[in-house]
Amino acid sequence: MFDAIKNGKKRFLFTKIFILALLFYYDFDLLTNINNLNSYIENEKQIQKIENYFKFCNEFKSQKIRKFKKMKKPEVSIISPLYNRERYILRLLRSIQYQTFHNIEIILVDDNSIDNSVQLIEKLQQIDQRIILVKNKKTKGTFVTRNIGVQYSSGKYITIPDPDDIISKDIVRTCYLYAEKFKYEMIRFNSYIGEGKLGFQDLINITESGPVYQPKLSSEIFYGSKELQMVDYYVYNKFILKDVYIKALNSLNKFYSNMYMIYMEDQVMNYLLHRIAKSFYFLKVIGYYHSQNSVSIMNNLFKIPELRMKFSFIYLKFIFDYSKNTKFEKDMANHLFTVINRQFNIAGRLQSTDYEENDYSLYYDIVNTYLNCSYIDNENKYFLNNFKFIIEKKNITYQKNLAKMKNTTSI
Q1: Interatomic CA distance for residues 105 and 398, integer angstroms
Q2: Nearest 5°: phi and psi at 305?
Q3: What is the mean pLDDT of residues 108-115?
Q4: Which domain holds residue 10?
């Protein structure tokens, strides 16, 4: 009987090794994705809860108005830049007011809105004394407006939701406890974009089960360890030590710190944050509900391809200006250029007859800068020379049209 048990164990061990060998041979990633599979099962359980919470935050009339007193020393600052968000700001505020963590301040920075956003917020301040309203005298763009809010904040930690989204009611408390206990300088949580889908960046394989520290943080997590890819994309799904964010701001030169940016601004800050933060933790819970609305900056910006190209080129210039001049970062810069070129079909958009009347001198200057950069590989130089040729033809057409208009006016 003892021999039978012993032989049975051997057979079981042999079977296990055989199965593992097959998995290794046919799909090694299946082994590394087991933990991720379990985490996504947990995420699915959260989806129903957050959808109900989203509906709750939308049902303003059925909710009793509570009054909130100003905190003397807030631990967390929740900052949101807004422009013409009268229609959505109450929903975000409702999700903040029903947080299970109460020691907060709410900083809303209005970027010179032309709707009734400011008037609405001023009324809400009478109910919630934690709301601080900062008003830009002129429109400065999402990037500068967000950073103004951070500079006004007094909390030890910050989180920066977009004004037309909501945050999960437990996320501030959960992140705060993790940050205080384990001294994490930056925590990232999952985002949910509706219809049962997580944000695309959450689908990328993240094998780390614990915190990540420098120097690994500035390379493998942000860009991917096996392939160059942007694993971490947004700012809104972050809980950040304020000192880290301020250091990132201070590292910017005037060209970028005062730049009007409404696109690619998250990538710029993430690039710096992942180099300055000493520790990072990926919290595998849904902490953010990203709503898709037709009047958002992103949805409207995607209808203006020349603006998308402009900010994409500026981001690439930023990468070149701030990289550490290592082979890894040179490869990464070329990879980002290739990805953006494929996603936006830059050459195709430049050739479009719809944009012949625009001045393309800005793109011409940027393209020439990149062509003279030692980082650029031969493949991307080919694309850049193609861009340059198209821009030159566009500018000739633009100058001819301009001359015709002048002649017509003079006659």
Answers
A1: 51
A2: -60, -30
A3: 94
A4: 2-32
